[in-house]
Design goal:
single chain, five-stranded mixed β-sheet, 13 helices, 43% helix, disordered N terminus
């Protein structure tokens, strides 16, 4: 998935760069300026990685070739970064790398954020939209679904998550609703969660397939974590993989837990809503010409 992102990103840059290269007003504005890319999660995770790739290459294709710097602002699943971007000047010099989960939470009332999602200006999204997840545990806990179900009858399984409103938290909280005996321990972001998993401070993690297969692949190779089941549609590229091909979908877990159709509908809702990952936004009232420049390069 990372390779797909790089290819798509390169095409976007190539197609958009010629459009604004001859706009002297934009060149004069951005020349010598710094654009701040505010990432709603800590360093080392997939949000941070992709934002840094974006910042490294995007600036070369904006008139005036401004500098782009990344600032990590973890907190409540990117709520802190969302509120920060929402309150910044509408001058085209602030871009938020945010998680759509906070938008859903604000709309439904699950999150009491100080922003209006309809006023943020959306630039685009990095990724396919569909973001399948894996639920993984330490091998001392279980190595397959049957062992996990047996283990959770004996004691609570503690899952490492980010703050409330993040997919880490929401998908983990849903497992409790579905009937799995789990508890939640919150961290600032993915890197801290996986480090804590290796230390044995938590038992499990729910993370995206592209993140598990790239940034944290060494944890699989070293048997620090074992994939137990999928959350979301199983990606085609995993079907023939020796590591992932025999991993059951969550529906099998739900059947064994007698979760019920109503709660399965909630699961399907989460899968659809949280396809809004890695979205980029500008503050409200940003001038149209700066919005168009941003949209041409994200």
């Amino acid at each position: 998935m990372i390779r797909s992102f790089v290819r798509v990103f390169a095409l976007l840059l190539a197609s958009g760069s010629a459009v604004f290269a001859a706009e002297p007003a934009a060149t004069n504005f951005y020349q010598g300026k710094t654009i701040q890319v505010v990432v709603g999660f800590g360093p080392g995770g997939s949000f941070d990685l992709m934002a840094r790739v974006l910042a490294r290459y995007m600036a070369r294709h904006i008139p005036g070739t401004p500098t782009m710097v990344v600032q990590n602002m973890p907190g409540a699943g990117s709520l802190a970064a969302t509120q920060y971007i929402y309150s910044r000047p509408a001058d085209g010099l602030f871009v938020g790398a945010l998680h759509g989960a906070v938008i859903n939470g604000q709309v439904t009332g699950a999150i009491q954020g100080q922003f209006d999602p309809q006023k943020l200006i959306w630039l685009g999204q990095i990724g396919s939209g569909s973001v399948p997840r894996l639920f993984l545990v330490r091998p001392e806990i279980a190595t397959n679904l049957e062992e996990l179900l047996a283990a959770q009858k004996k004691r609570m399984i503690y899952i490492g998550t980010a703050g409330q409103g993040s997919t880490y938290h929401e998908f983990s909280k849903y497992l409790e609703i579905a009937g799995l005996n789990v508890g939640i321990i919150a961290y600032k972001g993915g890197r801290e969660i996986w480090t804590s998993l290796e230390r044995g401070e938590v038992d499990a993690v729910s993370d995206t397939f592209d993140t598990v297969g790239t940034i944290y692949k060494n944890y699989l190779d070293r048997k620090v974590a074992v994939p137990i089941f999928w959350q979301g549609e199983v990606p085609e590229e995993a079907a023939e993989s020796a590591t992932f091909k025999n991993i059951p979908p969550f529906e099998q877990v739900a059947a064994k837990l007698n979760t019920g159709e109503e709660k399965l509908e909630l699961y399907r809702y989460l899968i659809n809503v949280y396809s809004l990952e890695r979205i980029y936004a500008l503050p409200p009232n940003t001038a149209a010409e700066k919005v168009e420049i941003g949209r041409a390069h994200v």
